Amino acid sequence: MKLYEILKESIKILSSKGIETPKTDSEIIISHILGISRVEMYLLKDMEVEEDKKKEIFSIVEKRSKFTPLEYIIGYKYFWGMKFKIREGVLIPRFDTEALIEIAKNVCRNPKHILDIGTGTGILGITLKKLFPDAYVVMTDISELALENCRENVCTLLTNLEGIEIIKSDVFDNIWDEIGWGKFDLIISNPPYISSKDMETLPEDVKKEPIKALYGGILGLDFYLKIADKAREFLKSNGKIILEVGDEKQAKKVKKLFNLKGFRNFITFKDVSGNVRGIVVLHY
Ligand SMILES: C[S@@+](CC[C@H](N)C(=O)[O-])C[C@H]1O[C@@H](n2cnc3c(N)ncnc32)[C@H](O)[C@@H]1O
To answer: Most buried among 3, 92, 139, 168, by the most CB within 10 A?
Structure first.
């Protein structure tokens, strides 16, 4: 079968099963298996594809047609230009989360101590360590699998492992016990923030991601509350908290919550699509 015929057939299968981006997904699958770029794929469209490669491609297409997220099948996702390994059972990083890095670059001046709560694959902590190589970065998660995934990414993506801590902790619970200190210039988190109501309407492929990484309690605010409750204990004066939120409404609720805990200064920021994606809580 020629490459373009495989592409056509794959798009047909995926769209017939209701996959929203059949062309992009097919291109990613084929280029992944053949080890070529998506541009090269079109240059080589008349190439005859070996039988075993064809089988591999269609076996992935079949998995994808059952709504298994592509990243769990191919095992990686790019974030901030770096290739992160993704284990099935760990939240798949979203491009929108890059907005948190962008704002951190703008509001932080050489933070010495950084805490990434709910690190997942490690995207935030690892990217911040790249941007602020002298910083001490603590990455935490409650999921063993996520911590393992994070460790793998730390080892492959960072050359300087000095000042990196990866610990299991329920939000702030184990920080002092594990590292013996706990005052940060920057606390950053993309917490589970989906409400009970929104959990009911999640797309099929998102439902294959871990509930623990998505569900934020009845109103989606449980984690913000946990962070707000103890933030003062863990923040240096002039420290900042950067939190991802789902939308503008949630940003307002999160600000209110922090306001009730005595925080008065906030910055709301957007992602590249122009949607409200997070807030910065400033501590003076
Ligand atoms: C929305 S995911 C974010 C993952 C990663 N930071 C990212 O942006 O792709 C939330 C993460 O919080 C972790 N988590 C859930 N409950 C937690 C808790 N009580 N304490 C710490 N981490 C928790 C989940 O395992 C998951 O990895």
So the answer is: 139
Q: Where are the domains of the chain?
A: 3-66, 87-282
For the domain made up of 87-282, the CATH class stated in words is alpha beta
Chain segment 208-223, per-residue pLDDT in tens: 999 999 999 999 999 9
Structure tokens at 18: 């209701």
227 lines ligand 1 (CB under 6 A): no
For ligand 1, atom 27, which residue shows the shortest CA distance? 120
Query: What local confidence, expressed as pLDDT, does residue 284 receive?
Result: 80
Q: What's residue 160's pLDDT?
A: 83
DSSP 203-215: -TTGGGS-HHHHB
CA 230 to chain centre: 24
Q: For position 161, what pLDDT does the model report?
A: 87
Rg (CA), the chain: 21
Which of 218-254 are b and which e, b meaning 16 or more Cβ less than 10 Å from the residue's Cβ? eebbbbbbbbbebbeebbeeebbbbbbbbeeebbeeb
Low-confidence ranges of the chain (pLDDT < 50): none
DSSP labels, 254-272: HHHHHHHTT--EEEEEE-T
The whole-number pLDDT of residue 203 equals 93
Does pTM surpass 0.85? yes
Q: How far is the CA of 157 from the centre of ligand 1 (A)?
A: 20
